[in-house]
Amino acid sequence: MLKVLHNLKQNRWKFTIGLLVLAIGLCLLATPNYFFWPPQYKNLMNDDGIDVFIIISGLLLILYSMSNLHSNKIASVLLAISAAIVTSITFIEIIHWYFAGMFRNNLTIVLTIFAVVVIFLVSYDRSIDS
Fold first, then answer.
1. N or C: which end of the chain has fewer CB within 10 A?
2. Measured in Å, how far apart are the chain's first and last C-alpha atoms?
């Protein structure tokens, strides 16, 4: 148990990003019609399979941050997947805001942009340390 706590202390940002991605996946899974624009891609963007993939990605990053693994390749892949997920969601929310005229996602857009910046900073700091 002490080793897990030590690993969490060493990987606190990866753990936090994993929680963020997990929470995003759970929120998307709980909201079956979150995305609605463009209408022809509504079913694809709200697919439960994508939501489960996001949840699994978050869980993998959480498990990595708790484990004794110290692989740059694994960390790079998990952080890249997290960045892609959050960036894609941010982009889709901006499309909703701009093209559909739905301004209800303003705070979410700001927070996801902040999350992308944090993920990039963690990735950059990790690359300097290695």
1. N
2. 26
User: In tens digits, what is the pLDDT along the chain, a chain of 130 residues?
Assistant: 788 888 888 888 999 999 999 999 999 999 988 888 888 988 988 999 999 999 999 999 999 999 988 888 898 899 999 999 999 998 888 888 888 777 666 677 788 889 989 988 888 877 666 5
The angle subtended at Cα 66 by Cα 61 and Cα 80, nearest 5°, is 20
Quick one: tokens of 17? 């990003």
Instruction: Look at residues 104, 121, 103 and name the one whose alpha carbon lies nearest to residue 113.
Output: 121
The CA distance from 127 to 74, in Å, is 13
Query: Per the omega criterion (within 30 degrees of 0), is the bond before 39 cis?
Result: no
Closest residue by Cα to residue 77 from 126, 38, 36:
126
CA distance 60 to 52: 12
What pTM did the predictor assign?
A: 0.85
